[in-house]
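Homework help board

Subject: predicted structure for assignment chain

Our instructor gave us this sequence and asked us to write out the predicted structure in token form, then describe one feature. I got the tokens but I'm not sure how to describe them. Can anyone check?
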Amino acid sequence: MPRETAAVAVIGLGAMGGPMAKNLLRAGFRVRGYDLSPAACRALAEAGGEPAPSPAAAAREAELLHVVVASADQVEAALFGEDGAVAGLPRGSVVLLHSTVPPRFARDLAARLSSTGHPLLDAPISGGRVRAEAGTLTVMASGPAAAFAAAERALAAIAAKVFRLGEEAGIGSSVKMINQLLAGVHIAAACEAMALAVRAGVDPDRVYEVIRESAGNSWMFENRVPHILARDFTPLSAVDIFVKDLGIVLDAGREWRFPLPLAAAAHQQYLAAAAMGLGRDDDSSVVRVYERLAGIEVRGRRRDEAQGR
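My token output:
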């Protein structure tokens, strides 16, 4: 098949997979995709892609299979479940695992796919929906050199930076796990800090302005605090994602007998938010745990002014 019309499949067309599929289309790939959501499939069709009725149907003729689902259980179902993608994927085609999963799962998956003739790139992604739409994700990947070569053009279409971390599956997922430890702790810390600011009687808008220019800043503080100040908890990355991802971190700590007290404390805050019914809301909703405990609200004045309050 000519390179300009190479066929790829994308399983999972949500907040990350949908934009990734569109960027692959813009790069000249023929894209077939599958998602449980009819709306996500319609969006792919409107962009020029081909929705498929099953993962297996999406994978037929594909040279590359991008898996962009939320969890290891969903990866298992997408690849090996009823009408799973592996059943339709041509032998020799590369599977790119973009989901955040335990490193052990990635290693085991590589062995299983090797037995069916499908090389695996353990290639989790970071950057959120905004960078997925811009095609500027970060990919932290490990796998065989030949698989990297086969996927090079597709990775260039979705990412600004691709880190090649080694040839063994599990390395990419391990690095993503470390990223998620930091990201989860940073978001929880930002929520705690902003709630404390309000409890102390300090203007939260001014706190945000000051911290952005100070040593206490982080990418997550700068990115998530505006959600809080605007009281906009539309999910760009949901609370439930960090319930899962910090759970992966803590499971690894138990496996390796490694203490993770900060990750454990942050995980409890995400669990508390999920218990409040906020699991599908933006992960900055952790601030609402503190708000309920303290009887306060972290609200920026600019939102009030915009609404004439």
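Reply (TA_rk): Your tokens look well-formed. For the description, you could write something like this. Residues 171-199 form the longest helix (29 residues). That's the kind of observation they're looking for.
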